[in-house]
Amino acid sequence: EEAQSITIGSRNSPLAMAQAHIVHDALEQAQQHPKERKFDPEQAFAPQALHRFRISGVATKGDKILDVALAKIGDKGLFTKELEVALMHGDVSLVQHSLKDLETVMPADLALGAVLKREDKRDALVSAAANKFKSLADLPKGATVGTSSLRRRAQLAAARPDLHIVDVRGNLNTRIAKLLGVHETSRVKYDALVLAAAGLVRLPNAKDVLRDVHIAPIDPQVMVPAVSQGAIGVQVRARDWGTQRLVQLAEDQETRAACDHERTFLRDIQGGCQVPVAV
């Protein structure tokens, strides 16, 4: 098999690009050291040639519409559709997604080629370092908490009916800036945000971006995570066997099995971004 130039498609937010680099590094490592990867030798074979990888950023509808709550936009694939179109048109070789954003029913021409090892799947309570709230119970009565997720909103309301829960949009850097009151569009004084712990771990320059905040992971018994939260999915063209074999080298089988079960549940109940479902 000849060496090829492989283009990794990704949303162009800082966090998404960081995830694209995780995929980039995983694929480079996998093709250079295939014996160190956990995969079924009967199903996937290491390519003989070393491919070259590059990353291409794409803005999705969810990235562009920032003044409307996600649940009110009323569309599927808010953070994935443009990437899937680019993949089907051959503009990119594969795309990486936060797997929780990827529809369980995808176009027939596409397939979920691999799932990388899962990061922390919990949600986290993020507050200014000066406040240092350690849990939902630690929040003052009537505190203002920001989230763009119906699932988080529903569970926050169940755990603390007194909270004032408001929408917060923008990429992770923007939301942190809004929490701290230093973003140019800040109009709400947030006491805390609820965010995915995995994103906080993967965020580029996390030490600098998060230096003025306190992060407290939330017990999954208090706030059940989203389907596939913390996992990165690699989507490929269904008949692109060469790329499928390549990405399978980077797959984490334990994460894949868990996410397949979770996504099957979500598909069976026809859940999505507009339904507060947790697993």
From TrEMBL:
Q: Which residues form the Porphobilinogen deaminase N-terminal domain?
A: 6-241
Could you say which cofactors this protein requires? dipyrromethane
GO CC terms, sorted: cytoplasm
Q: Output the Gene Ontology terms for molecular function.
A: hydroxymethylbilane synthase activity
Which pathway, metabolic or otherwise, does it act in? Porphyrin-containing compound metabolism
Task: Give the E.C. number(s).
Answer: 2.5.1.61
PROSITE patterns per record: PORPHOBILINOGEN_DEAM
Q: What is this protein called?
A: hydroxymethylbilane synthase
Species per Swiss-Prot/TrEMBL record: Catenaria anguillulae PL171
